[in-house]
Amino acid sequence: MTRQLSGRVAIVTGVSHDGQVGQSVAATLAAAGASLAVVARTRQNVEARAAELRAAGARVVPYAVDLTDEAAVAALVRAVHGEFGRIDVLVNLAGGLTRYKAVTEHSVADWNHEMGNNLLSAFLCSRAVFPIMRENGGAIVNFSRAGLPQANMVAYSCAKAGVDALTRTLALEGREYKIRVNAIAPGIADTASNIESMKPKDTSRWARREDIADAVLFLASAAAGGITGQILPVTGWSG
Question: Most buried residue among 3, 45, 98, 197 by CB atoms closer than 10 A?
Fold first, then answer.
């Protein structure tokens, strides 16, 4: 792998459990030469992932942060900028589907939870890095979802639609400063949690974690220098 991100600093959120997309994204960006700030809510998990990355030779600092907390996100970005002196890439991966139930069973708390984890977190992190990226440009990669909305996940689907709108709006605002903002829209991925919960006989048609990570690297690198405001599906062979 060429070191497309040599000398760059990337914040990757949602780097928590073993066998998940965040782990693959962080490892891929590190292999491309980036120094990393990896973020998750649970300190034990994010420190374990950071230890793996360090063992592979990466420069990485872990941060345990609630990304729905405005003050905590602002403090995170200040800390990363103070540690590394720059921020070039932000990957808003934190979130996911946690409330799967019929719309009549969705509470306001369920709605707020999915919106907070998937949309508010991406907004707060993006807003916090924008003033820094205005100096030298940068790349933000959000996470949407592939396919049409499905039943029993109304809050999650609406949150991801909001991520799409956030992506396109920030891309417009970032053009003047050479801040590119795009999103990945993965299909069902071969994560450890998906395999455990769905127990498929065959995952060969699913999106591979490594392919999702390579798509993030592409959008974060100079190879995507002319691309902004786009939603890139990564669906494997099932899409």
Answer: 45
CB 29 within 8 A of CB 23: no
pTM above 0.90, yes or no: yes
Q: At what angle do helices 121-136 and 154-174 cross, to 10 degrees?
A: 10
Q: Tell me: the pLDDT tens digits for 82-117?
A: 999 999 999 999 998 888 899 999 999 999 999 999
What is the number of structural domains in the chain? 1
CATH of the domain at 216: 3.40.50.720
Residue 177 designated active-site: no
Nearest to 23 by CA among 7, 34, 12: 12
Q: Active-site residue among 63, 100, 156, 177?
A: 156
In a domain? residue 239: no
Give the distance from CA 112 to its chain's centroid.
Answer: 19
